[in-house]
Amino acid sequence: MADPEVQISRGSPPVEADVDMEAGDNDAEGTAVAAEEDDKPAPRVTFVDYLKSPMVELLIGSGDSQTLLMAHKALLTKSPFFTEKFSSSGDARIELVDDDLDAVSCVLEYLYTGEYFPHKLPSGALEPDPSAPKIDDSGAQLLKHAKVYTLAEKLGMPLLKSLSHSKIHLITSTALAEIAYARYVYAHTTRTDLTIRKPVASFWGQRSHVLRHETEGSFRDMCLEYPEFAFDVLSFVLDAEEKRAQRRGDEEVGKSARKRARGQ
Questions:
Q1: How far is Cα 147 from Cα 142, in angstroms, rounded to an integer?
Q2: Helices (H) and strands (E) in the chain, counts
Q3: 58: left (phi > 0), else alpha (psi -120 to 50), else beta?
């Protein structure tokens, strides 16, 4: 805010000018004090403040598997999705009929603690999960984090998306598990989501010539069911081959220089 303007008339006595100047100085001091007050940091929101907020009902799933969970409203408002729900309806119940119960519970654990099980250790590995096999042969462990990823996308929580995606790459799995994971990714993400789709295409582009024999036809079915997957894998293979050819100095890459034999 600018300082108050001090107007001095040309024919005014000097004393009147002095009075006006003093008033301007006082106003400037008041403005400076107000600015200092504006610069004060906002009071810190404590965890107790979150726990004092109203409880909200979350209705997860549908039918016989429908489950009712409770969470504090102040924590849920960290998600733009929930914030919009509160502002549009103000209801104390939100229905998430199409979402996975385990994924929602992971989101709530993250909102309350900043992490979700299994946690990432300082070493970069995941903490052991006694309920899960060391090698994911069904895709259950991969899908756990993939479902958190897609739910975080829906809720507008980019840091949780990043965390869940990093955990996916710490799972040891089989080819069948990877097919189950790839099917989920291509069924529940958009074409533009290269963050999660590109590593899937890269994985199969590097290993499909070997792993496709271990999938009992699932790889073929996946290609037919999701042509975008087949195209992405093929693009990775062709791009890799093009780069290898360029490193060999092959100038014919990308050109139609080879003549076709004419029919007699």
A1: 9
A2: 11, 3
A3: beta
8 A C-beta contact, residue 97 and residue 61: yes
The reply to whether omega before 130 is within 30° of 0 (cis) is no
Tallying the residues shown for the chain, one arrives at 264
What does the block give as tokens for 96? 């998430």
The model carries a pTM of 0.77
What whole-number distance in Å separates Cα of residue 83 and Cα of residue 161? 18
Strand order in the sheet with 93-96: 67-72, 55-60, 93-96
pLDDT band at residue 191 under the 50/70/90 scheme: very high
Place of tokens 């890269």: 202
In whole angstroms, what is the distance from residue 195 CA to residue 77 CA?
26
Q: Give the distance from CA 259 to its chain's centroid.
A: 49
Residue (of 113, 103, 105) closest to 142 by Cα position: 103
Closest listed residue to residue 81, CA positions, set 184, 112, 89: 89
Q: What is the pLDDT of residue 39?
A: 67
Residue 133 has pLDDT above 50, yes or no: yes
Report how far Cα 170 is from the mean position of its chain's Cα atoms.
17
Residue 242 backbone dihedrals phi, psi, to 5 degrees: -65, -40
pLDDT given at position 1: 43
